[in-house]
Amino acid sequence: MNILILLLLLFVNLYSYELAETYEYDTPIIYSNDLFPDLPKKFEILQIPSDKTHYRLNAQIIAKTFELNGVAIDIAKTRYVNFTKRSPVDFTPLKYQLWEMFQEQYPTIDINTITISSRGHLSSLRKDVKGIFDDRFYQNSSGTFYYFDEQGIRHYLDYSVQARIGVLHTTQKVSRKERISGFNTLLKPIPFTSFKDKPLTALPDHPSRFRSNLKPSSPITLRNIETIPLVLKNEKVIVEIKNEGVIVEFGARATQEGLLYDIITIQKSDGKRAKAKVIGDKRVELQ
Fold this sequence. Notes:
Helices cover 15% and strands 36% of the residues. The chain is of the alpha+beta class. The protein has three domains: 2-85, no CATH class; 87-228, no CATH class; 236-286, SH3 type barrels (Roll), CATH 2.30.30. The strands form five sheets. It has a five-stranded mixed β-barrel. Strands 6, 7, 8 and 9 form a four-stranded antiparallel sheet that branches. Residues 167-285 form the Flagella basal body P-ring formation protein FlgA SAF domain.
């Protein structure tokens, strides 16, 4: 039993410390707990030349130093480690920009912290700085962006957001083409990590339905829903015929569903079919 516990502790120790690709430093001497703050054993890893603001080192060398001090670290995901001198600049304008952008995308977001770090040493940052982000930045809680300085030089920075987002979930099993409403959905806060598609944080402004079957407690994304067509299949519609300024109307049955301005097929009372354009809610215009 004691041997089993010892092996378990060794296993936990082996995989507790995963080396990252980037670290910031204030002083040129890098210690073990600069990389892993919760490491009880403190020892020197390297000393960066004082004239350097950026230093790159093979992860194998760092791992060997830890090994010589009786600590195993995981470098499976890291080949080289970049050390960047911490920039004495205030990232508040960029943090506020990020805060506004995430609030716009997710009105139900509750942001705890926003962290920004530069990939190189920055001596200054103008107050009117604006970051340039990827079009789908909002799908991930961390990423990279850049800005241009006064000389037009591009500078890259990394950001990380700790937050929770209120996302609509199904309260029961829902079927394809079932209308989405407050009766089959509920807003639940979830940790913000990454999304393959934008989640719904509120019921759509326009009548919508599910595009596929979903299990109970499933998060709902934009890909899961679609707008309910103005005309549904087998629904009775009003057909308009315009002739020299005169509008004649009669009833028919839609044999297809259609959105605004779609061309669909209708069936008249005599059984004959015709083409018609969707012009409104349950209204079509004969073509």
